[in-house]
Design a protein that fits this description.
Blueprint (H helix, E strand, L loop, with lengths): L4 E3 L1 H9 L4 E4 L3 H6 L6 E2 L5 H8 L5 E4 L5 H11 L5 E4 L2 H8 L8
Parallel strand pairs: 1-5, 2-3, 2-4, 4-5
Keywords: Cytoplasm, Transferase
GO molecular function: thiosulfate-cyanide sulfurtransferase activity
Pfam family, one: Rhodanese
């Protein structure tokens, strides 16, 4: 069975800049609207089938939550769904916002 890996905010930013990863933000709707990583999917149980279909299991995915705790469970779930390369971003959006810009609205 696949396992997720941990990734730092800086590694995430570098890979995102090189378009090597897809960001899956699992926070609530209001938090997502208030500020998320540019291009991030708002991943919910409702959007999961579309996410799997459009992103595909071969693309590396970084799961983002508030502080890097909830994302671990979600990352493990995606790994179990067949995603080949899944990461949980340590520090979550709380740490990301200290060093990188966020986008507000629906994306």
């Amino acid at each position: 069975m696949s396992e997720f890996k941990h990734i730092t905010v800086e590694e995430t930013a570098e890979r995102l800049q090189q378009k090597q990863v897809c960001i899956a933000d699992i926070r609530d709707e209001q938090s997502y609207r208030n500020g998320h990583i540019e291009g991030a999917w708002h991943l919910t149980s409702a959007s999961l089938p579309q996410f799997i279909q459009q992103v595909g299991v071969a693309r590396p995915v970084v799961v983002v939550c508030y502080h890097g705790n909830s994302s671990q469970g979600a990352a493990q779930y995606l790994a179990q769904q067949g995603f080949a390369e899944v990461y949980s971003m340590d520090g979550g959006m709380a740490l990301w916002q200290q060093h990188h810009p966020v986008q507000s609205g629906h994306g």
